[in-house]
Amino acid sequence: MTDAEPAGVAKESPSILTKAFDVLNSFNQNERVMTLSQLARASGLPKSTVHRLLARLVELGALEHHRSGYKLGLGLLQLGATTPAAKMRDQAIPYLVALQRWTRQTVTFAVLREFDVVYLEKLAPANSPSTLATIGARLPANCTSIGKALLAYEDLDDLAAFLPLRLPQMTPHSITNADDFVEHLRIVRKEGIAREHDEAQIGLDGVAAPVVVNGFAVGAIAITHGPTAPASGRVDAVLRDTTAQLSAHLHSYVVAAPERERLVPRTISDPPPWG
Question: How far apart are CA 89 and CA 255, in angstroms?
Answer without folding.
Answer: 18
